Amino acid sequence: MTITLYQASIPLLVRGLNTLSTLLDKAEQHAGQHQLDAQQLLSARLYEDMFPLSAQIQRASDTAKATASRLSGVAAPAFADDESTFDELQARINKTLLFLETVTPEAVDGQEERPVTMKLRGEERTMTAQEYLTVFGLPNFLFHVTTAYGILRHQGVKLGKMDFLGL
């Protein structure tokens, strides 16, 4: 069985964003049930030097857009990173999903060896599109999805592995 670059990227990004949407729904329900200020959850961090929940969602969105763009050559939309409510973060996820819908298999497949250049820690780094996906794009995206999940669990939101897996 052969898996294409598109199959290994866009569907996984879509699934992860849908998972984040579900996690945010459950977080909002949790806040309502426990009379918590939504900002308490949105500003929660796993550790003081890490991004808060809202920024984890923004970074996951940015990484999904950038990954799709770098693999396909389709320009990604820019978002302002000014979301401060559950509804605004859900809207950002939806806008990201709409962008991913525009990226076709034809634009991605066959681009495995295309050079992708990006800045990492202030230095330019070039790798193939396939290497970018497997070494940076997907791991970075999943880091932010996982961290958002971890923040919400730490805040007492009732989530399990199946919520993370989207099952």
TrEMBL record:
Record-linked Gene3D superfamilies: dinb family like domain
Ranges that cross the membrane: none
InterPro entries: DinB/YfiT-like (IPR034660), DUF1993 (IPR018531)
PANTHER family from the UniProt entry: BLL2446 PROTEIN, DUF1993 DOMAIN-CONTAINING PROTEIN
Entry protein name: DUF1993 domain-containing protein
Annotated organism of origin: Herbaspirillum aquaticum
Record lineage: Bacteria, Pseudomonadati, Pseudomonadota, Betaproteobacteria, Burkholderiales
